[in-house]
């Protein structure tokens, strides 16, 4: 609840409401419309407080930083999913007795340029 979180982090409940209004923190709500803060919300709040208290970052800067962190996390998840797919594919190929490089890309040398006498007309 907002009062418990405000006390835990020694901030005013209005500060939490401001962070919510700015879209920096989005706690879930109970049936009675009470704000409920999950562990992820508290971790995000700690990041916000570190940026404001220790680094002097304003709310606009915090929004940019948090958005970049979210995008980086999504990119890491996508990269991990790709690595998992490739590992699974290689495992399946090796179990079937096929080498993993059967359909590998092959290096192709660049084309050679042939010069002719007289040159082309312009």
Oligomer: single chain
Low-confidence stretches: none
The CATH class designation is Mainly Alpha
Helix residue percentage: 55-70%
Order of helices and strands: HHEEHH
Q: Using only CA atoms, what is the Rg? A: 28 Å
Main sheet attributes: strand count, strand direction, barrel closure: 2 strands, antiparallel
Please indicate the count of domains.
Answer: 1
Helix tally equals 4
What is the average per-residue confidence, as pLDDT, rounded to a whole number?
A: 88
Instruction: Report the end-to-end length measured between terminal Cα atoms.
Output: 78 Å
Strand content: under 5%
Global geometry: elongated
CATH topology: Multidrug-efflux Transporter Regulator, Chain: A, Domain 2
Helical/strand content category: mainly alpha
Number of strands: 2
Report what the structure shows.
The chain has 122 residues and is mainly α. It has a single domain (2-95), classed as Multidrug-efflux Transporter Regulator, Chain: A, Domain 2, CATH 1.10.1660.10. Helix content is 57%, strand content 3%. The protein contains 4 helices and 2 strands. The chain has a two-stranded antiparallel ribbon with strand order 1-2. A hairpin with a 5-residue loop joins strand 1 and strand 2. The longest helix has 37 residues, at 59-95. The model has no long low-confidence stretch (mean pLDDT 88).
Q: How do the strands and helices of this protein lay out in sequence?
A:
Layout: H1 2-8, H2 13-21, E1 28-29, E2 35-36, H3 39-54, H4 59-95
Antiparallel strand pairs: 1-2
């Amino acid at each position: 609840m907002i009062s418990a979180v405000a006390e835990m982090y020694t901030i005013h409940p209005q500060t939490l409401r401001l962070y919510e209004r700015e879209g920096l923190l989005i706690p879930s709500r109970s049936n009675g419309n009470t704000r409920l803060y999950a562990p992820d919300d508290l971790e995000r709040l700690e990041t916000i407080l570190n940026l404001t208290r220790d680094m002097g970052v304003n709310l606009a800067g915090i929004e940019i930083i948090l958005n970049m962190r979210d995008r980086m996390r999504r990119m890491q998840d996508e990269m991990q999913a790709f690595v998992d797919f490739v590992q699974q594919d290689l495992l399946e190929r090796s179990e079937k007795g096929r080498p993993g490089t059967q359909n590998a890309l092959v290096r192709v040398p660049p084309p050679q340029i042939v010069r002719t006498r007289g040159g082309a007309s312009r």
